[in-house]
Specification:
The chain has a single domain, classed as Metallo-dependent phosphatases (Purple Acid Phosphatase, chain A, domain 2). 36% of the residues lie in helices and 24% in strands. The chain contains eight helices and eleven strands. The strands form two sheets. The protein has a six-stranded mixed β-sheet. Helix 2 crosses helix 3.
């Protein structure tokens, strides 16, 4: 059966070797059977810049992705909040095609909107302000002038602060805002939305201007791996162990 695979929020890092093994097995197996593979952000726990390809695990991940694309399966990559500093050097090493957030595609006759998902969390004003700063070219240019080791340390500190904040903030603030979802679906005219970021895998339904739309939230790869298989028959989450 013809299908397209979607994944996000893998947060690959050397401290989680089991998830890394599941990812490599997926690329060597199910991904090669797909019409295309879409990665909707946060492939890495963090990415400090394309010079971080010197890290052996990062280089191995890039090589494994390139093997998929060289086998004839297009690999599309959307930036997440953890890996917004992925640029052309990584793209060439991994054989991936970068796509914008959001992106609209036709999936076997269904108009589908793809997003990382963080822009839908509009109630988290503190995060949105931080996101705007880090997505500015000026901030990125200055940050990338710092030595790699300093960039890594700064990102690690920011990640720890973010994890601590999650323990105190209300969960609803960090989830998507329903109005933002409705607006995205209405503006795009799509019948389906696929996104990650929230780590709350589920299927949701939305009534948009008289149209029944569905929203699929992709799973984070913590306890296990999972991809969303999308075919002409619909969407099916597939767990990987």
């Amino acid at each position: 059966m013809s299908f397209t695979a979607f994944i996000s929020d893998l947060h690959l890092t050397r401290t989680r070797p089991r998830i890394n093994r599941i990812f490599f097995s997926f690329l060597a197996g199910a991904a090669l059977q797909a019409d295309a593979l879409y990665i909707l952000g946060d492939l890495f726990e963090y990415w400090a810049g394309d010079d971080d390809l010197v890290d052996p695990l990062n280089a191995q991940i890039a090589a494994a992705l390139k093997a998929v694309s060289e086998a004839g399966v297009p690999v599309y990559l959307m930036h997440g909040n953890r890996d917004l500093l992925l640029f052309d050097s990584f793209g060439r090493a991994a054989g991936v095609t970068f796509i914008a957030d959001p992106t609209m595609i036709d999936l076997y006759g269904t108009r589908t909107l793809l997003m990382h998902g963080d822009t839908l969390c509009t109630a988290d004003e503190r995060y949105q302000a931080s996101r705007r700063r880090m997505h500015s070219r000026a901030w990125q240019r200055v940050f990338l002038t710092l030595p790699l080791l300093i960039r890594r340390a700064m990102i690690e500190r920011a990640r720890r602060r973010s994890d601590a904040r999650k323990q105190t903030e209300a969960e609803a603030i960090m989830d998507v805002t329903p109005a933002a979802v409705d607006q995205a679906l209405h503006a795009s005219g799509c019948e389906r939305l696929i996104h990650g970021h929230t780590h709350r895998p589920a299927r949701h339904t939305h009534l948009i201007a008289g149209r029944n739309c569905e929203r699929w939230v992709l799973s984070a790869w913590y306890d296990h791996g999972e991809y969303l298989s999308v075919s002409a028959q619909g969407c099916t989450p597939v767990q990987l162990d």
